[in-house]
Specification:
Blueprint lengths: L2 H23 L17 E3 L5 E3 L8 E6 L4 H17 L3 E6 L3 H11 L5 E4 L3 H5 L7 E5 L5 E6 L5 H13 L1
Parallel strand pairs: 3-4, 4-5
Antiparallel strand pairs: 1-2, 3-6, 6-7
């Protein structure tokens, strides 16, 4: 086959690929999490079925953590976050990504997590916050602005405390 005969097939492939991309991206929220800007607001159900809204943390700030129980770095990190939460009193909101409430509740009970845990079953908020991998920890200041983003496991208590200090210092 000559190159001239392949061009229409190539163009068709590009058009179909663009259409598929558009359909996939149509489900992604348009207000993305960008450092230095207001954190996109959301409302998710906690393990008791109550709505927790990110806007309720305005005026005090929050450490937002995306996690899942199948994620080994998350399993290592969440107990440290829990200890830092108990030590500092800085608000932590844990967003579980894609798991059933029963699985999450077992994890919360096992590790005696003291901070609120909400369920992002549809993964919509994960997409909105551009969380590619887990865990993802974000610092949102009292003004509701996203001021820090840490991708991957926080392994040292001092690093967690430094992130929390940024909330109270801001």
């Amino acid at each position: 086959m000559t190159i001239r005969k392949l061009i229409p097939y190539f163009l068709l492939l590009v058009l179909v690929g663009g259409g598929v991309y558009t359909l996939i991206e149509a489900d992604v929220p348009r207000d993305k999490a960008v450092l230095g800007q207001a954190a996109p607001l959301f409302s998710l159900k906690d393990l008791q079925g109550d709505n927790i809204e990110l806007s309720s943390y305005k005026g005090k700030g929050v450490l937002l953590n995306f996690w899942a129980s199948w994620c080994n770095p998350c399993v290592n990190e969440l107990p440290l976050l829990n200890e830092a939460y108990k030590l500092t009193g800085v608000d932590v909101l844990a967003v579980n990504v894609g798991e059933k409430a029963e699985t999450v509740q077992q994890f919360v009970d096992r590790y005696e997590l003291g901070f609120p845990v909400v369920l992002d079953a549809s993964r919509k908020i994960k997409k909105q916050y551009l969380a590619i991998g887990l865990p993802l920890t974000l610092v949102i200041n009292a003004k509701g602005e996203l001021i820090e983003r840490h991708e991957g496991e926080l392994t040292e208590m001092v690093d967690i405390l430094n992130l929390m200090r940024k909330i109270s210092d801001d």
